[in-house]
Amino acid sequence: MWMLWLMMLLLTWPATGTKAETGGLINVKPGCEEKCGDVTVPYPFGIGNRKCAMNGDFFLFCDRSASPPQPKFEDVVVLNISITDGSIIARIPTAQRCYNGFGNVLNSTDIKVDLVLRPFRLSGTRNKLTAFGCDTIAFMTDAMGDFGSGCASLCTINESFKKLNNIIENSCSGFGCCQTPLRKILNKTKTLTEEFITCDYAVLADESFDLSGLHFSDKSSSNVTVEWMIKDEESCGDNTNLTYSENGQGYRCVCQPGYKGNPYLGCHDIDECNEGYPCEGTCKNTPGSYACQCPIGMHGDGTVGCRGFRITTIVAGCVVVLGLLFLLLIGLWWLYKFIKRRRKIKRKQKFFKRNGGLLLRQELSSNEGNIEKTKLFTSKDLEKATDNYNVSRILGQGGQGTVFKGMLTDGRIVAVKKSKSVHESNVEQFINE
């Protein structure tokens, strides 16, 4: 049984400068292009003009012959640049080596990516080395030859490599496929791998890269994560902090709390009051932060939660109570008016009956042809006609009452008899008079 060695030789390197943080409104220097095809190229990187980059290490070539255009460095295609975590997603080819049944090499492809001259390193936390094949060992060393990472992929004798796709779709358990994380952050890689009748592959890829979609051929490729950093501590913009890179080989720039933007160009204040930050009271923006004062009548931290009752709630409660009281008073007033009116009607009916109203109505009905002689008047009409029963209007007195001279509104003169204290038994006699 023969054994194929797939080697990835990765050398250490001197780091130089760059930064990172959340994207802001300004991502590039004035007059510089921001995008190459679909890829945003934020400062400290630059395209088109070398002055658009922090230095030559961060200058990328925009290949406009591709469709869409692609940013590149050292023939490596850049798919994404993150200011936030200081990383690049790049596309590199896979390595392959293929043998015939006699163990003779039919095809061999060596892939070499050299990042020594740039402040970039392959991420040791986000990339994984994956080997596909039978009786295959894949390993990585640094420039000094020290072992970094490796794994072995084994198969049974005469195992058909046509099952490769099924192996990829399942987990790499060591049978036809093995996978291991990188233990060092490296900047120079040499990869060997193969296919055809009996082919083995070595793939360095970001842990999020979907290997099930990888179609092995001499043109297959994978995505890797490359970390970048800066050496110059004065490269950060305003309102930023300098932090050590995770790989310990340089620095990164990040915006201070309460600020946002590109930290290599300068961060600007976040207006928390207009960006939905929590506040239950009156919000006031301050440099790098904001203040939130609880409403009148409440206390506590407005950014977390206020306790008590808002003055508006108290006022609203008072308004509601006053409104209900007003409606209650209106209702009682209308009830009083209704009851008073009912009592007045009943009293009028009572007096009408007691004072011989029924007899008068009967008299009216029996004298329909002579209505003018027996017309009914209200007490107010009679008071007005007699000048409030003025003594100067007295014409005479009878047994049951006093007769007054009255003048109606139409000028007619009438005699008005006002009763004295009359007993109910004498009502009919009073009417007859």
UniProtKB/TrEMBL annotation:
Signal peptide span = 1-17
Identify its membrane topology class: Single-pass membrane protein
Q: Which organism was this protein described from?
A: Citrus sinensis
> What is this protein's record name?
EGF-like domain-containing protein
Q: What is the lineage of its organism?
A: Eukaryota, Viridiplantae, Streptophyta, Embryophyta, Tracheophyta
Which UniProt keyword terms apply here?
Disulfide bond, EGF-like domain, Membrane, Repeat, Signal, Transmembrane, Transmembrane helix
Q: Which Pfam families match?
A: EGF_CA (PF07645), GUB_WAK_bind (PF13947)
Where would I find the Protein kinase domain in this sequence?
389-433
Location of this chain's protein in the cell:
Membrane
User: Any idea where the EGF-like domain is?
Assistant: 269-307
